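INFO  loader      accepted 1 record
INFO  loader      residues=217
INFO  predictor   begin
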Amino acid sequence: MNICLVAGGPPELLPDLSLYQSPSTLWVGIDRGVFILLEKGIKPDVAFGDFDSVTGDELDLITAQLGELEIYPSEKDETDMEIAFNWTMSQKAENIFIFGATGGRLDHMLANIQLLTRDEVLLNSDDPEIHVVDRLNMITVRKPGTYHISRQTEFRYVSFLPVTREVKGITLNGFKYPLDNMDIKMGFSLCVSNELISNNGTFSFTDGILLVVRSRD
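INFO  predictor   done
INFO  writer      dumping tokens
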């Protein structure tokens, strides 16, 4: 099962959601993301939010199609996205895709990306693959190990960004700018905007946490 979360970020940054639709896909609408899904002809299976980012008319349309909603208070200790993410992590999904989480308020965007670095995500080997996706980028988080990576024409560039203060032993094979057992520190841009020069490559590291960002031109 794949679970797709759609938040209320700028709709123009959303990828083609139909590419992620399948009989086994579970759609989760988050606040204004519920309205965005309905506009795109997708009825969410689950909805979360305080719905402070929709108009009264839009909320009426949402409730007309989904029925009564559990509306969370606007003053709470977790964002709507975090509430939805916590629920999603309990559902035994194979893949989680998060849309509408970038391009709006910077504080929300950073908090959304940081969800990928939580202990329960990094420490459990049975957790699903989690991707933050928009029209221009795909972001995942990786812990130490060796990974195979394939060239994708729609995401030409590959960047590796430390989440921890230092990431050790980075080795890149099959890339335009290869590395061999290099340590990089947070705040440095050595591993930004690389490219695969063959159809397949590998990257590995021995310590720390990396964000892997695949980007279009």
